Amino acid sequence: xxxxxxxxxxxxxDVLLEGELCEPDPRDPTQVLSDAKQKQAAVRSTLxxxxxxxxxxxxxxxTPYGPNVEEAKNLTLQTVVSILNSTKSSExxxxxxxxxxxxxxxLMKYLYKGMGMPxxxxxxxxxxxxxxxxxxxxxxxxxxxxxxxxxxxV
Length: 154
Description:
single chain; 8 helices; globular
């Protein structure tokens, strides 16, 4: 038996598994997906009324995280990006100020996820950078630190 085929982490009692880093989403993956689809419909109707802070609040509330919910994560990212793209740059400051600190942190997570996926869907780097600038002005650098250290990825 070759030593290269042995998983030494299986014998290490100090190994840290991804599932131990944060609590998984307690909802069933199919429920998470249906919730994401319902939120997307609610966001569309709220955007049609012109309520951008309300739409962003809906999209950032109880976001999917953890394993086995990739489709819901991508759907929520699509929803958030559509809100960001439909917002005028002069309105961004007021929208960001209307969010709670947790919502600001979650928005920053989605900004970084969008920046990490160039060419995906209708993600525009300039839009994401504009939102990042305004969000950092309002929330401060603490928002960036909280997002970088949080193990729950969106």
